[in-house]
Amino acid sequence: MKAIVLSAGQGSRLLPLTVSKPKCLIDFSGRSLLEWQLEALHCGGVTEVVVVTGFAADQVETMLALRTPVGLKVRTVFNPFYKVADNLATCWLVRQEMAGPCLVLNGDTLVEPSIVRQLIEAPASAITVTVDRKSQYDADDMKVCATGRRLTAIGKTLDAESVDAESIGFLRFSPEGAARFIEQIEQVMRTADGVKLWYLSAINALAQAGVDVQIESIEGLQWGEVDFHPDVARARTITAAWAARWLPQVPVRPAAGA
User: Nucleotidyl transferase domain location, by residue (predicted)?
Assistant: First the structure.
């Protein structure tokens, strides 16, 4: 299983923490955000990761050359348009990496290995969107409407009364689902607004066109999105517990050729 991690952005909402380093290299309990992602993916069964870089790409590449979980193949793809384009364009840039079954993980989402395993083992579908549920949702949540397991809509502006869950920014694509997704983003990138859109807008369009998009709920498992300064403190609390529980099991060595 291959995973693509979208880590091109600076994370300007976290300034001054990100004034000279990207969000993915912020320290959380002794490991950067990206290191936690790689270790969770590896423990969860992923064997290959493609990291999309942008802001301060050289710093990310240096970290990867020094700290890579044993047995995990990691490559980078540089996105030169990270300053002017949103993540739909990032997915378009790496569309050739999605030729087979794959996972896509937002660069600001921390997940524990159990979430990775659950997503990989979820019932077959063209596209699977990992979700969590809570009592109420705010304006920044990527909201999800669903009928049973079938996703019917996804977006930040959905009517709160109809929302069933929120996307945590972690998806699985079958080969057929990836092909439909690539076709959709290629069409959208030909429009005037293509570079300004989130890739989940393409998932919304596919779901409404009848493509088999399902949800996988990870209620009760630990994850965290790092967007704003309060998120940093919460993520450090979560990762401190992870460090004691499962991090020592993950041997790390310099990547080949480092």
Answer: 2-136
